[in-house]
Amino acid sequence: MTLGGGLRGLASWPPVDSAFLEPRTSVTRFVQDAARHELAQGRGTRAADVPRRLIERLHQALGKLIGSAGFDVLLARALVLARRTHPELAGITARPGGALEGLDDAHGGVALEEGALAIVAHFVELLVVLIGDDLAMRLLRDVWPATAEVRNK
Questions:
Q1: pLDDT in tens, 95-125
Q2: Which is nearest to 144 in space by CA: 54, 71, 63, 67?
Q3: Is the peptide bond before 96 cis (omega within 30 degrees of 0)?
C-alpha cells in the first residue's frame, strides 16, 4: 500500500499473519480458567452452555461501557476469526444482544465446544488489543475475580 496511491492495496491490508489467527496463549488460558469457574459455580452443564454463559457475563459487564452495538461488533468479529480454525462454527451466527444463534442446534461435540470457547478467546483478545491490557484486565477481573491475568506472553 502506498501513501500517495489512493486505495490501491487496501484489499491486502492488514497482512495475513499467523499471529492474527489465534489469540495469545495467555488469553486462551484466561478463557479456560473462566470456563472452569463457570462450571464450578454450576453455570452450564452442556458443552454449549459454558461459552454462552461466558458471553452473557461479558455482555452484562461490558455492554454499558462499549454499548450493545459495540459488543455485537466485537462478537461478530470474534466469530469470524474463530471460524478460520474451527470450521464447525460455520452454522453459528452472531445476533444482537450478544447471542450466538445456532449454537444449541449444532452438533460437533468437543470440537464445537472448543470452537465456541475460541469465540470467547478471540473476543477477549480483541478487547485487549482495542483498550489495552490494563483496562481489559480490570474489567475482566470484575467479572471473574478468581481467574488468572492475561499477560503479553
A1: 999 999 988 766 667 888 889 999 999 999 9
A2: 54
A3: no
